[in-house]
Amino acid sequence: MIRFAVLISGRGSNMTYLADAIKDYNIAAQITVVISNRYCAGITLAQDRGLPTKVINRKNFNTQAEHEAAIAAAIHYHRSKYVFLAGYMAILSGDFVNQFAGQIINIHPSLLPAFKGLNTHQRAIDENAATHGVSVHMVTAALDEGPMIAQASLPLMASDTADSLAARVLQLEHQIYPFVLLGLAKKILSL
Ligand code: GAR
């Protein structure tokens, strides 16, 4: 049984696809807790699914280290083996990442190493990229780097806007993150 925490910051759609895939495809996995760094729509979606949730707001802590210690405590308290970042929009410190070395996975809306950081869809359009997509990778201390686990791509269309591209990439995200979870649960994938 793969026990994993999910860290979110906003809409939470990737989290819901993970949660629903576990049920729909009988994956030997369990979301132990959904943690957010601010109150957000995804927390409500997690509660709707009966998942434990915890809002650990950065504003309530003096330092990033104290904030991350509270997040780490929640991950441990819920006995989580892995941490899936699903739209977690804060940069985790090297200390935090090293503490969970080999256990944190991130989904990023670009074909890494292209377009690290934010506004990936607009940047793909601006640079006339032929293809764009999504990456699932292991998290290391360097932002949006770390060993690649899976990628899915699509061709850009002349009519694409940042919004239309984001919507099409999101469809790929919703397939690839459950696919990676399934691989872990079936032990086809090891990290
Ligand atoms: C997703 O597109 C995810 O790839 C992205 O945030 C969105 C969250 O959507 N993550 C990053 O940009 C991380 N660098 P969601 O809250 O609906 O899952």
Topology diagram in text:
Blueprint (H helix, E strand, L loop, with lengths): L1 E7 L4 H12 L4 E8 L4 H8 L4 E3 L8 H14 L4 E4 L8 H6 L4 E5 L11 H7 L4 E8 L9 E8 L6 H24 L6
The structure holds glycinamide ribonucleotide (GAR).
What's this entry about, in short?
This protein has 191 residues and is of the alpha/beta class.
Q: What kind of assembly state do the chains in view correspond to?
A: single chain
Strand order of the largest sheet: 3-2-1-4-5-6-7
Averaged pLDDT, please? 97
* Main sheet: strands, sense, barrel: 7 strands, mixed
Class of secondary structure makeup: alpha/beta
Shape, principal axes of CA atoms: globular
Which ions, cofactors or small ligands are bound in this entry?
Answer: glycinamide ribonucleotide
Report how far apart the termini are.
Answer: 15 Å
Low-confidence stretches: none
- Provide the β-strand percentage band: 15-25%
How many beta strands in the DSSP annotation? 7
- Rounded to the nearest angstrom, the radius of gyration is 16 Å
The helicity comes to 25-40%
N-to-C SSE string, H for helix and E for strand: EHEHEHEHEHEEH
- Alpha plus pi helix count: 6
